[in-house]
Amino acid sequence: MALNQVLREQDRLKDYLTPKLKDYIFDELSASYLQKAGVQEIMTGVPVPFHREDLASRSASTLMLASNMAFVIGCDPSFQYRDNYLAYIEKTFGKDFAKPLVSQGADYAKKEDYLSACILFRAAILVDPSFPDAVFCYGRACHDAYSSAEDREEEFVGRFKAEALKCFEQYTMMAPEDDMGYYYLGYAYLNLGLYMKTKLTFDSFLRLSEHGELRAEVAKLQEKLEEPLKIEEGTNCVLSGRFESGIEILSRYEEDERFNTWWPLWYYLGTAYRGLGDGDQAIRCFLRVLQYSPSNTEAMEQLEELYLAAGEQAKSEKYHAKIGVVRRNQEEDRELRRRERGQTLS
């Protein structure tokens, strides 16, 4: 699915960007203005955004209106009047309006205001979906937003990571000869633990790039991927039901301090042992999952079922209760964040 369509239908970032609309108010343009601008069919009965600072000047230029419209749909690509705004922008400035939007977004990124940068890059993508610079810059802004987020919740980081990944995947298709697309896509895969995709993507970067320093950096990373690639092979064995092969590979890392604090290693080992009917070993592994990921409800569910099957009712009920506590806490945290975002908007 093209990125502009994803923005319209599966927007991951709307909740974090729409608070930026708090300084905008909406009003309809006069009939005389619509007639003079030749946009009656597009904009009659359509409220347009005015920034509070715009109202003080008591003027409304075509550029100001188009910029405000772009900002609104960049915040919320499913906005009710999105198509009217896009039609207005195209009629008055054409798809080239995406270029100044990217330039303004880059200015925000330089100031480390990555959310505003994301908004403008998203708007540029909606104005001209075929503009590769907008896609690349949006990916960079998403990457920088989560990389610089010290106190952000896990959901924020996860959503921005997923958005960056989608951007760089599309960018490498739009600009297959640009090495930097593969550079950032490789890191996006690496951050998700997709080591084979990381290797293949970095291979493409090394094939294309002439950046000596970056080539050395990526080559060094490639050398470190050998063991993670084996672990990924082991997890794929488990996922495909080849439990014995998965255990053979993954169990080698149980005492390896480089990898044995990685909770998925223990989760996949536990899954493999359970698949082979070895409940004791499965329990041992899922307990290790909770050692490194204490709120992991999937591991708790496994332990609840395993203890029940072993006739240890009290332990089974213990994990059933823990699951309830963790999920209630998670829902309370989500509700608190929703309220905070709502207060920001009001």
Mean pLDDT: 91
Structural class call reads mainly alpha
Low-confidence segments, ≥5 residues, pLDDT <50? none
DSSP strand count? 2
Principal-axis shape: globular
Structural notes for this entry:
- With 346 residues, this protein is mainly α.
- Among the domains are: 3-127, no CATH class; 236-345, Tetratricopeptide repeat domain (Serine Threonine Protein Phosphatase 5, Tetratricopeptide repeat), CATH 1.25.40.10.
- The protein is built from 20 helices and two strands.
- The chain has helices spanning 3-9, 14-17, 31-37, 40-43, 52-57, 62-75, 82-93, 98-110, 114-127, 132-147, 154-174, 179-191, 195-208, 212-223, 226-239, 243-250, 263-275, 279-292, 297-309, 313-345; strands at 24-28, 47-51.
- A two-stranded antiparallel sheet has the order 1-2.
- The longest helix has 33 residues, at 313-345.
- 34% of the residues are buried.
- The model has no long low-confidence stretch (mean pLDDT 91).
Fold blueprint:
Blueprint: H1 3-9, H2 14-17, E1 24-28, H3 31-37, H4 40-43, E2 47-51, H5 52-57, H6 62-75, H7 82-93, H8 98-110, H9 114-127, H10 132-147, H11 154-174, H12 179-191, H13 195-208, H14 212-223, H15 226-239, H16 243-250, H17 263-275, H18 279-292, H19 297-309, H20 313-345
Antiparallel strand pairs: 1-2
